[in-house]
Amino acid sequence: MAESARSKVLVIPCSGIGKVHGLVAREATYRVVEGLEPETSDTLCLALLVKGDEEAVTAVRTRPCITIDGCPKLCSYKNVQLAGSNIAESVRVVDAFKGHKGAQPGTATELAEDGWSITDEIAQQIAARVREMCGGEEQ
Amino acid sequence: MSMAKEPIKVGIISCAGEEIPEGTISRLAVRRVLEHLRPGQTVSICLPLFLAGNEGEREFARSFPTITIDGCDKRCAQWGTEKHSGPVNAAFVVTQMLKDAPPLSGARSGRDLTEADLAAVELVAAQLAAALDQAAATYAGGEQVAVEASSACGCAVGLPSGAVQVNGKTVEIAGLPLIFRQCQEDGLAADSPDAPARLLEVVCVYHAVDDSEAQAYAAALVEAYRTSLASDR
């Protein structure tokens, strides 16, 4: 694994498939690792980690992690923690929704405009945290 | 009046791999089956929740037909399901399903999916739907019991159901005899202090129970479970 990959912050969403919140978590992750902080962040399959894949377990133990969970079951947070990671930040999509009463986020399949807006808001929050963790200036 | 048979529910467990484009295809194909191709006949389960030990969801996969779909050859969904709940009815890997299809764009986000990616979703979803029909038919002893929904009555139900009395209402719960049988095989006694929560947990996986009625459901399930155990003696 290249040095740059080793130092990247891991942003790990929950894999939620039944509700829009899981999709928001997933899309916020991609917004961060592909759009906002591609040089300093990356993602990981949560199921692979839960399966006990050696490389995945090593990655979460040696790299800073941010978890994003759609629902209060906190699958990502709990499983990353269980794998031995010292989680730097745990983001809950349900909390982000509290500031958007009446929003129409879309479905578990496809986000609507409100859903993308909440997704971007979460992504900005995570990206700021990634910059902070990487020693950059928080904007 | 035409009779509508209640379709057998088939579980689809998807890897939803966040790291790879095929994980996105897998997730979207499952959603396509759930919402459009086989609505009402399919249930899905969050894989990490399943792997991390939600007994209720594992219980379903033990008792009902289950299909897995993985994005890559690591086969997390198949591995996890078979480890915790036994053999699956069918196991798919997106990379193999698409080996003769046009290449994917490599996009992971829904924002970036191309026509080729969406076509791949359709192709995978169609194969899942076919496997689902086959799994349901096999489960029903060779008879195809899943038919189109109608407003007709629900007699001749494919999946054995059971009735319980909740707050004076009769409530039909699909798969209840199978749930009871599984709990019995697991050694759950009706008078066990764990019985109310355990039965409710399993039933809640695929039967919506309002929080305000949870206690009444739990009591009704224990009573029905007790009767079921007594009748088996």
How would you describe the overall organization of this protein?
The complex is a heterodimer of chains A (139) and B (233). Chain A has one domain: Rossmann fold. Chain A is 52% helix and 14% strand. Chain A is built from 7 helices and 4 strands, in the order αβαβααβαβαα. In chain A, helix 5 links the parallel strand 3 (65-69) and strand 4 (87-92). Chain B starts with 9 loop residues before the first strand and ends with a helix. In chain B, helix 3 packs across helix 8 (195-206). In chain B, the strands form 2 sheets. Chain B has a 4-stranded parallel beta sheet with strand order 2-1-3-4, with helices on both faces. In chain B, strands 5-6 form a two-stranded antiparallel sheet. Chain B has 2 domains: 10-139; 161-232. Chain B is elongated, with a radius of gyration of 19 Å. Chain B is 48% helix and 13% strand. Chain B is α/β, with parallel strands linked by helices. The model of chain B is unreliable at 142-159 (pLDDT under 50). Chain B has helices at 21-37, 47-51, 55-63, 76-85, 94-97, 115-139, 176-185, 195-206, 214-232; strands spanning 10-14, 42-45, 66-70, 90-93, 161-166, 169-174. The A-B interface holds A 12-18, 22-23, 26-27, 29-31, 34, 43-48, 50-51, 53, 73, 75-76, 78-79, 82, 107-111, 116 and B 14-20, 23, 27-28, 30-32, 35, 44-49, 51-52, 74, 76-77, 79-80, 108-111.
Short description:
The complex is a heterodimer of chains A (about 140) and B (about 230). Chain A is of the alpha/beta class. Chain A has 7 helices and 4 strands, in the order αβαβααβαβαα.
> If classified by CATH, what would the architecture of chain A be?
3-Layer(aba) Sandwich
How many angstroms separate the termini of chain B? 39 Å
Helical content class of chain B: 40-55%
Based on helices, strands and strand pairing, what is the structural class of chain A?
alpha/beta
**Structural class assignment of chain B:** alpha/beta
What summary fits the major beta sheet of chain A? 4 strands, parallel
Radius of gyration from the alpha-carbon trace of chain B, in angstroms: 19 Å
Number of helices of chain B: 9
How far apart the termini of chain A lie comes to: 30 Å
Beta-strand percentage of chain A? 5-15%
Order of helices and strands of chain A: HEHEHHEHEHH
Query: What profile does the largest beta sheet of chain B have?
Result: 4 strands, parallel
Strand order of the largest sheet of chain A: 2-1-3-4
Radius of gyration of chain A, in angstroms, nearest whole number:
14 Å
Number of helices of chain A: 7
